[in-house]
Amino acid sequence: MNTQIFRRILLASACSIACAAPALAQGADESDGNAEIIVTAQNREQNLNDVPIAIDVVSGEALKEAGFSSMNDIDKIAPVVQLNQDQGTVKITVRGVGTTSGDEAQDTSVVVNIDGEYINRPNVMGMSLFDMYRVEVLRGPQGTLYGRNSTGGAINFITRKPGKEFGANASVSYGNYNAVRADAGVDVPMGETAGLRIAGFYEDRDGYNKHPAGGGFFVFPAFAAGRSDDTHAYGGRISMRFDPSERFSINLAAEYSKRELSPGIFAAGDLNAAGNGPTGGTCNNGFSRVAPAYSQVLCVPSNTNLLAKINPNSYAAPNYGIGRIGDETWAIRGRIAYEISDSATLSYIAGYRKYTGDPTSRRTLPVIYQSFTFQDEAGTQSHELRLNGTVGNVIYQVGGFYFKETQDRESGFLLPSFIFGAPPFTNGAPTPGTFLSYFGRYLNSDSKSVFGQVEVPLSETLTAIGGLRYTDNKRSATYLNVSPFANGLVGKGSARQDFSKLAVVQRLPLGSNDSKVTWLVGLNYKPNADTLLYAKVSTGFKGGGFDSVGTYKPESNTAYEAGWKQTFGDRGQYQVNLGGFYYDYKDLQVSVLLDTAIGGQIFNAGKARIWGLEASGDFQITDDTNFHASINYLDAKYKELLAQFNVFDLSASINGVGDLDPTKAGVQQPNFGGNRAPFSPELILTAGLDHVFHIGSSTLTARVDTTYKTKYFTDFYNYADGTQKGFTQTGMSLEWKPENGPQHLEGDGGDVGACQGHS
After folding, report:
1. What residues contact residue 461 under an 8 Å CB cut-off, 6+ apart?
2. Model confidence at 508: pLDDT above 70
3. Per-residue H/E/C for 462-520
4. What is the pLDDT of residue 600?
């Protein structure tokens, strides 16, 4: 069972969690219904209501109110985003499109950028985020401007830039689970043309999940009791701004962050316990029979209800207890922009990042296993050169992008010593076990692309948009696989191994190469300043790769989308957005167990059909009262998905099979077509209300926000015990601002991603 199920139940009951709706982009900072929200979703500054993209925009003030501190909190500020936190890695799903694997050669399906720096590794995405000015969540494939791996969408984080006047900000909060969060920053002007900002954060929180001692045979009490899903993190950033002239600007930043946590651990149901598994030689107790042509009786847990037997607030840890992982990140990035003329700007955006996992990291898995990660290092760099401008009434941008990544990972999967007859304890401490498997993964990846997009007016009210991007990906690797049982037991202990001394080593030189052209065509109809109607067809793709068995192709998405953005009222105080989309998704990359001797594999498993309807509204009822609401309907089903059954065999001879078809030779892969895509709730509803009370010269702002999500599955099997039940998250807050107190955050978003209000 997925620990994310339990985590969400806990979050749903935590009153201190605020759930911000997209309308919070306008936030409490904006008191005038005419205030514009400026975004850079299309790599240039535009009014939010002029952007033909379904987008959630959340200001820095709203991020703070929602308790946002890392990618793990992204669903707090954009409820349409589904998050799966799996043993320290972060997997994001938007509109039914996401990545289920954290393998080295797998990338995410949602592009993440921090001030233009490209990030694509699931384990790196667990990093802390701080001193944010704004977040933009773009829904739908963004293959033209954001490139590969944007089949689900893109998330842009814009940090606060140095202000032009001296200023400082600081905040400290305390919540349940002994949650402490402190943020601070200071702006220091350096003459008329430069500025410095120093910012940092500290975060500490107890774990959501409690694990009493007990729960299995040979439990190690020293490890079994405690809490998981905690966090301990800190970091800082130095940002500099230079404006040598009116046409020339430079923004630079260097940051460091470190975190340590006990990842949320799995709760396991023992199928051998009374009443849990099939009995009497038949598939009962919620199990269904599959592959009837086999002589064995093979069952799958399609309708079991083991989750109901486990207390989500307190459940036993695996026998090896609670794991511990840590990591640290260094990053530098910058943007240089030069206005060649009044109608053209040349920009260079670059970022370098070094991620290092703690070499003592370990994860515990049901029921008796432990996974060690002795090396986990990733280095990335991204570079983009872009020219934006206009020729007459035509708006254009062209550019090139380069991304390079190196990964070095070494890990082992440990079985306790008592499995092989050794005592569980030696001198009062757990006896080291034996590595069932041991892996080395050393990868190099690079991606090059060129792109262009134009907006051509066809009349005073109608504009055509077209874009193209060509991407070329290359990836090479050396995989080292140890097979300890092929030549006796090896790797005894729980320390890093020497590959040269291991009994059997399989050395695999691997590689993949793919290229793709993605495109966008669309029409924007704007009969007046308050109305935008748009329709478009766009494509996106996720790069291919390989595992220890073979290569797999890129997966692709063709999206059809239309929308309406409308502002009402004499001061523009009412905003309504409507939209619909249809996705044709092909060559899905799916991670499944196909052969128990080989393990999990990733391959192109089939097709999916996804469509949905979205509506949102933001209404300034009075000068002091705002109401917002949204509804998202999603139908995400596989048209074809070829995988394998993992079975409960009553004869205990096999644990994973395909199916036998008398009309075909060999074992056939079952087709899970018709199943719903994981992390895809059918309905998401949000609503919120805020009101400002004037008390003398001070103000007291009361807010309430709520989100409801219907049930969804956490895997493609759609089993009952892999279901997250429908839930509601509600947050309430009171904010008092004294007379002459700060009404706005100091600093700004800089030239890229400025979030400004204009009266």
Report:
1. 525, 526, 527
2. yes
3. EEEEEEEEEEEEEEEEEEEEECCCECECCCECCCCCCHHHCCCEEEEEEEEEEEEEEEE
4. 60
d(C-alpha 300, C-alpha 260), whole Å:
37
How high is the pLDDT of residue 387?
95
Q: Are 145 and 117 in contact (CB under 8 A)?
A: no
Q: Are 336 and 250 in contact (CB under 8 A)?
A: yes
Q: Of 128, 261, 129, nearest to 207 (Cα)?
A: 261
* Tokens encoding 706: 């709520």
Interval 36-81: pLDDT, tens: 677 777 777 778 787 788 888 888 778 877 777 777 778 778 888 8
**157, 129 contact by CB (below 8 A):** yes
Count CB atoms within 10 A of the CB of residue 516. 21
Question: Hey, which of 46-55, 182-191, 635-644, 722-731 has the most confident mean pLDDT?
Answer: 182-191
Nearest alpha-carbon partner for 239 in 746, 756, 741: 746
pLDDT of residue 218: 45
Judge contact between 432 and 419, C-beta under 8 A: no
Which tens digit of pLDDT belongs to each residue from 250-308? 999 999 999 998 888 877 777 777 888 888 889 998 999 988 888 888 889 999 988 88
pTM for the full predicted model: 0.85
Cα dihedral 95, 96, 97, 102, rounded to 10, equals 130
193-209 burial: b if 16+ Cβ within 10 Å, else e: ebbebbbbbbbbbebbb
- Separation between Cα atoms, residue 364 and residue 215, nearest integer Å: 14
∠ CA 430-434-440, nearest 5°, is: 125
CA separation for the pair 487, 483 (Å, rounded): 8
Print the SS3 string covering 388-447: EEEECCEEEEEEEEEEEEEEEEEEEEEECHHHHCCCCEECCEECCCEEEEEEEEEEEEEE
The three-state DSSP-derived secondary structure of 537-580 is EEEEEECCEECCCCEECCEEEEEEEEEEEEEECCCCCEEEEEEE
Tell me the three state secondary structure of residue 9.
Answer: helix
Q: How many CB atoms lie within 10 A of CB 728?
A: 12
**Paired tokens of 645:** 């059954």
How many helices and strands in the chain, by DSSP H and E? 4, 48
How far is residue 326's CA from residue 29's CA, in Å, rounded to a whole number? 37
Q: Using CA of residue 714, residue 584, residue 668, residue 506, what is the dihedral sign?
A: negative
Handedness of CA 291, 303, 680, 560 (dihedral sign): positive
Residue 660: alpha-carbon gap to chain centroid: 38
Give the β-pairing of 153-159 and 194-205. unpaired
**217 vs 385: CA distance, rounded Å:** 59
Contact call for residues 717 and 688 (beta carbons, < 8 A): no
Which residues are bridge partners to 564 per DSSP?
533, 578
- Rounded alpha-carbon distances, angstroms, from residue 388 to 402, 456, 521, 626: 18, 14, 19, 37
Residue 32 · residue 571 · CB < 8 Å? yes
Token pair listed for 510: 């691997």
Instruction: List the structure tokens of 641.
Output: 């998905």
Helix (H) or strand (E) holding 657, with range, is: strand 656-657
- DSSP tag of 587: S
